[in-house]
Predict the 3D structure of the following.
Amino acid sequence: MKKLHWYIMKSFLGPFFMTFFIVIFVLLMQFLFRYVDDLVGKGLDLGLMGEMIFYATFGLLPYAFPLAMLLASLMVFGSLGENYELVAMKSSGISLFRIMKPLLYIAVFITCIAFYFANNVLPHTNLRFTTLLWSIREQRPELVLQEGVFTNEIDGYSIRIGSKDKKTNVLYDLLIYDHTKSKTNQSVIVADSGFLRITEDKKFMVLNLYNGVKYSEEAKQNKNDTETYPFRRDNFEDQTIRIKVKGFEFNRSDENIFRNTFRMLNIEQLKFMEDSLGTDYYGRLRNFMLNIRLNTSVTRKVHNLTAKYDSLKIQSEIQPDSIFDFDELFSRQDKWMMAEIARTALNDARNNVQTLNLYDDELYNRKKHLNRYTMERHRKYTLSLAVLIFFFIGAPLGAIIRKGGLGMPVVVSILMFIAYYIVSMTGEKSAREDVWEMFAGMWFSSFIFLPLGIWLTYKAATDAALMSAETYSKLLENLGLERLKKWMKRP
């Protein structure tokens, strides 16, 4: 049995590491496509780019572990089924669960690793990555001139180009307005071609112009000056404009700015932030509820519900001495008293509406911010447990499909992971918007896919023909006959 277990483990580890790095590469390409606009044109060196990709890779590990486990288990058990090795093992009296047992230990071990990364390593890498990305975004980009559009990136100049050669970066048909020294449009340069570059120290922008004309006129010294000034036109074959610029140097931001963000905290820190933010939120909610004008009984109930730890809270309900019909009492009043009562009620209602409008957005944003910390705490558990869930889905599904390699397993894995992602996002959005309870929303995908894995394991252990077309054709035939019999029995 030990040799069999070693054989299964060796058959699994190779595809797992291969698929793990493939998944990391695919997710990393998706990351680069997402942030390409923030990285292009910043003049970043290779070391800085490598550091950013390194931190981003760690951030992708919680999503790579489940998908790699699903794909590897599908490939291994699909290959064993395709080569009739599972049939040979089962004919020797070895159950499917005993075959899965060594891989189950590996799945539990990878689940623990995924949780360790999510709770201990990922907060630090997220902090480094977010700080680095923020620093890159804050860095002033190198000038990117668009064809036919005026650009004001260079201080004191407004530049338009007609076209640009993407291979040589040569600019054609340039029109430049010189606004330095608070000039208006007194100096204009028209050039046939040019070339723009930034110096290595990123302190100066150099614009080389070729075959152009510079038009300029002298400005009046004051508004009352009636003296005329000459208009000047200079032709040139080669002219260089050198401008001192600021904001091109790369400076790292302070990490303490993002240290208390929900993605940068472990479970204990998230609980502390939840407690602090929750206390502040429910205190504001209590003040909001007490500022609404309600009757005494309702106000007392609101106070009791919102002041959970108040020792002076009144627990007993005050019973009214008598109950009267307000409509009957209101109808016996004269019209002046009725108008006064209606006016007072209308003013109270308007004041309550104003209070609601004042606090609604603030409380909604604060509760949504609080929910992000709670969601992140649950996500550390759910993404780690997803590794184990996908093992119980991939292994029996591979045994049922009986197809190895990177063909059918890849298609099934992608479809299954997309379904998991959609269900997970649905639950998280419902939890974030307080449509569902936080626990139900964050664990919604686990509640669906864990029973699915158990059911698939049972079907694979009992050799159920789930992928056989005859099974479903007979099922449809039986359903059709049953409906026909019921239809014939009708009077």
